[in-house]
């Protein structure tokens, strides 16, 4: 997968945090949205992950990963590892198509480059059909062949 310039260098935590992307004020993403996507991605991995691997998946910094992990009660970091602290099996069962679409949106947009359904399927350890369904369920994403496109890009 091609990765563009780092897109997520900070999280929105102030009064402008509306739970989404704050494009009009520097492109920061809501800490709630990012940390939810990070937790979902971690659950789908089926194991605790080195922070460096999470950094690469989300094309971001260690600081952002640690900030999100500190904010979300289901995550923590320890000795360079990102840890899911709740029942991973149960958490996986509650990731529905809406939740998956948020994870796909954050990860695919964070790459800041052309991203395919297969790229994201490999990254999330899911089938291309599941990724297509998630993209089609999201109001701000669409498919152009196998490429995932975001509104405004």
Automatic annotation (TrEMBL):
- Give the source's domain of life in one word: Bacteria
The molecule here is called: Uncharacterized protein
Please give the organism: Thalassospira profundimaris
